[in-house]
């Protein structure tokens, strides 16, 4: 199978960065299996959508099964689905914890395990996950313990996967963004959010998309946590 027919699974694909990743992959003529809770059917015969909660193992199984049934393989998994709840640590409730761990950790585990099992059969594959720069560089005024607990675990798991599967043709990398300009950040918050980055502005969704595409192309790169954060993780 040449690059033009690569098959990519994208989680959290119904909007924002996930939807932009799907568009970029289709621009390369890759086949895509896109999943999210509220994702709608696609008119594109080379995009299969699977609606469901990624924290549910049954959803993960359906996604990978659909990829294999429709396109014959899984070349890349993009773990983009994620929840961020900003609250003071002592204000988190059980529901917050369950939601964040369910999507960010269980979702990662469920679909990555099944995707890697398929990649092992093929003798090749790539897992790229989206974390957050807050894991490495917490910011006063941006409470993020649950984000660090969950996404920090994904960063560590990425390095572990990279080493465990290095000799089996499977790579694992992650993109660690700063604050990205998207519909979730109202215009009136932009000035304050811009100031949190040494370069003086938030990132664009395209910056994260470009990083995902770079890592997917970079066959000699594995175990990398690529910071796309305007210098945030380097210091202030």
From TrEMBL:
Keyword Oxidoreductase listed: yes
Keyword Oxidoreductase: yes
Protein name: 3-oxoacyl-ACP reductase
GO molecular function: oxidoreductase activity
Top-level lineage group: Bacteria
Pfam family, one: adh_short_C2
Family: Belongs to the short-chain dehydrogenases/reductases (SDR) family.
Keywords, sorted A to Z: Oxidoreductase
